[in-house]
């Protein structure tokens, strides 16, 4: 076995080990180092010196021996040395109280008289801080934020022997980030928060709060995107830096006002035709508003305002697409509801009303934008006449005559309804047809026509229409007179009313027949002493005639269909009034008067011839009227002879009458105007006398009348 080693020195640098140094023993291949504490010991085999025994108890006194070893065995233990292990290192509990302080604490170490704690930046910058204390905690202040510090602590005993040290790396919590900036993306409703990196910060957290709502974003970079922000909200943004030591204080909150929300409660109305009023509710965080109005023809206008309403010019019949945006410094609000507003269709233009009949008017107009349907309303009189059609024309019938109508053509659309602002047009219907109440004769060719006036400010025209032509009279009242109507004519009498609005229908026609015409020519021919023939020309319109000869002595009358008549019982020498009545088929009568008629004077009676001495003959008669002058005519083969008595005498003489001849003797009255009227002379009786010769020139006058002969 090798020799016993000799311990040079033994010492404890760690609380769980003792190191032993000895001189080498020749022939020894190994050494056994033993540390004994009472009944317990710890052995360690080493190759050579020094050797360290581990697994010991701190602050414990051990007996240290060394034995040499080889293949032959082990030597005896060396003389022992007493060595006490150093104090155990304090077990530190380290935390950063703030960004510039670190608190160190530990549990008491057995038999420790004090503690030494040192602190230094791990990167070697700055100076080391060291504190000795008998307490079990201390705080290092005024440190650099976010810096990594190395902390070393050990305890010492009463002899000032330091024990094990304990090293701990601790970082101070970071400082709050600076230069925080918020970039708001209005379109995506998100915010990008950025800041300057702070020393020692490993991560950062961004807190975006609005009332009870909090949004967070964690990142290890110097920026963070916070999505899903709400419009119309004000957020407060703060950034906190974090590391393993803790968190910084939040940065001062940065105000973030998002874009305003889209305006709501949008109302659109036409406060008056041609003007659109767009209004909406006030929007939180809205500084001003822009209203965009785009018409269906592509034209767009807009309005900027800080109030909650805008006025726009509008045209009828257009559809407008309206959107309202709110603005602030953050930008434009999201697109809200797009409203479409269709203005009332335009009022029809080129209005024309043409009467197709008295009670029917055809209304036409030009088509207008936006109209799906047209309504024509005629208001007047006692009611309303309506017409609805998609066409640009309408016929209103059954209108009241002589009535003023306000005709309104309104356009209609399904989107907006009826345009009630269309201006009515005034149209007056033609006058009502008058009703003829009476037709009366005022004279031979004068007819008075009366009617019921049923119009205001109308002129009435009465027309008598017949084969003879047209006759008119005009009045603004209820009657007028037709003058100079021809006799013997049939007419149809009707009346119309005229006004600036037009002409009425004709009234119902009333037949009118004028009295027959009096014959223009009337001739009286005395046929015999007591019979007269009357003849006349045709009286237009007359069917029968009644002729009358009337005198104080009596009357002669004849009713005939012909244009002549024989009247008997005529008294000779009498003045008659001549009258004729022309009678039509319907009994109308015209009384016609003519020049008076005088019948022939009465023939004398008692005509006798007396022979005179000088070959003459005296004709004697008895006068019927002393005032009548007579003339005697003798007609024979040997000559014609006549004589006229002096006034007041009833005989006359004819001298130198040849005898031996037969004479026809007529004594007839004469008028003042001529020597003898053939008209009358044939009425008196003719007597035949024979004048004979008896041996001389004086003969006998024999009357041969009615088979009787007379002679002188």
TrEMBL record:
Record domain Fibronectin type-III: where: 1-88, 89-175, 176-261, 262-346, 430-517
Protein name as annotated: FNDC7 protein
Organism, as annotated: Sinosuthora webbiana
Pfam families: fn3
PROSITE patterns: FN3
CDD domains xref list: FN3
Lineage: Eukaryota, Metazoa, Chordata, Craniata, Vertebrata
């Amino acid at each position: 076995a090798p020799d016993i080693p000799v311990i040079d020195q033994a010492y404890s640098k760690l609380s769980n080990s003792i190191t032993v140094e000895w001189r080498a023993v020749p022939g020894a291949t190994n050494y056994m180092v033993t540390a004994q504490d009472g009944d317990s010991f710890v052995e360690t085999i080493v190759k050579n010196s020094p050797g360290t025994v581990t697994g010991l108890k701190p602050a414990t006194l051990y007996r240290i021996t060394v034995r040499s070893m080889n293949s032959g065995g082990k030597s005896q233990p060396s003389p022992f040395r007493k060595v006490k292990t150093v104090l155990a290192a304090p077990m530190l509990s380290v935390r950063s109280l703030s960004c510039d302080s670190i608190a160190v604490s530990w549990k008491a170490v057995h038999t420790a008289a004090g503690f030494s704690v040192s602190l230094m930046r791990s990167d070697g910058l700055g100076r080391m801080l060291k504190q000795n204390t008998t307490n079990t905690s201390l705080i290092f202040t005024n440190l650099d934020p976010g810096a990594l510090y190395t902390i070393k602590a050990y305890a010492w005993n009463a002899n000032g022997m330091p024990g094990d040290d304990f090293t701990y790396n601790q970082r101070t919590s970071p400082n709050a980030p600076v230069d925080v900036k918020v970039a708001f993306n209005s379109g995506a409703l998100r915010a990008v928060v950025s800041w300057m990196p702070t020393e020692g910060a490993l991560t950062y957290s961004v807190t975006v709060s609005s009332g009870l709502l909090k949004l967070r974003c964690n990142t290890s970079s110097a920026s963070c995107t916070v999505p899903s922000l709400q419009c119309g909200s004000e957020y407060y943004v703060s950034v906190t830096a974090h590391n393993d030591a803790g968190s910084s204080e939040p940065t001062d909150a940065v105000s973030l006002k998002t874009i305003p929300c889209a305006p709501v409660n949008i109302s659109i109305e036409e406060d008056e035709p041609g003007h659109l009023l767009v209004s909406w509710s006030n929007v939180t965080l809205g500084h001003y508003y822009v209203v965009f109005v785009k018409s269906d023809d592509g034209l767009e206008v807009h309005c900027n305002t800080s109030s909650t309403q805008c006025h726009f010019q509008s045209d009828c019949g257009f559809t407008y697409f309206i959107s309202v945006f709110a603005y602030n410094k953050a930008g434009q609000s999201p697109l809200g509801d797009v409203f479409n507003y269709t203005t009332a269709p335009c009022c029809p233009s080129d209005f024309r009303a043409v009467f197709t009949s008295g009670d029917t008017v055809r209304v036409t107009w030009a088509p207008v934008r936006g109209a799906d349907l047209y309504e024509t309303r005629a208001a007047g009189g006692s009611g309303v006449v309506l017409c609805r059609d998609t066409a640009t024309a309408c016929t209103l019938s059954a209108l009241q005559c002589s009535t003023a109508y306000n005709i309104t053509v309104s356009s209609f659309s399904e989107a907006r309804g009826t345009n009630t602002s269309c201006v009515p047009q005034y149209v007056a219907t033609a006058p009502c047809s008058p009703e003829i109440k009476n037709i009366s004769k005022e004279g031979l060719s004068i007819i008075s026509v009366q009617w019921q006036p049923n119009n205001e400010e109308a002129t009435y025209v009465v027309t008598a229409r017949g084969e003879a032509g047209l006759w008119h009279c005009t009045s603004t009242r209820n009657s007028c007179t037709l003058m100079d109507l021809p006799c013997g004519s049939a007419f149809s009498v009707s009346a119309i009313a005229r006004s600036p609005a037009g002409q009425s229908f004709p009234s119902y026609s009333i037949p009118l027949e004028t009295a027959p015409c009096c014959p223009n020519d009337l001739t009286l021919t005395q046929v015999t002493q007591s019979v007269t023939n009357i003849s006349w020309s045709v009286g237009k319109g007359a069917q029968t005639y009644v002729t009358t000869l009337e005198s104080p002595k009596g009357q002669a009358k004849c009713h005939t269909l012909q244009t002549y008549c024989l009247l008997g019982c005529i008294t000779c020498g009498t003045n008659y009034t001549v009258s004729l009545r022309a009678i039509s088929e319907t009994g109308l009568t015209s009384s016609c008067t003519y020049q008076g008629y005088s019948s022939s004077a009465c023939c004398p009676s008692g005509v006798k011839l007396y022979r005179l001495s000088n070959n003459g003959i005296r004709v004697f008669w008895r006068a019927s009227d002393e005032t009548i002058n007579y003339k005697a005519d003798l007609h024979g083969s040997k000559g014609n002879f006549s004589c006229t008595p002096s006034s007041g005498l009833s005989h006359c003489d004819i001298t130198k009458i040849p005898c031996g001849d037969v004479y026809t003797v007529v004594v007839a009255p004469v008028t003042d105007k001529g020597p003898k009227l053939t008209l009358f002379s044939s009425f008196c009786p003719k007597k035949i006398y024979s004048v004979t010769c008896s041996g001389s020139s004086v003969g006998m006058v024999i009357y041969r009348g009615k088979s009787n002969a007379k002679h002188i």
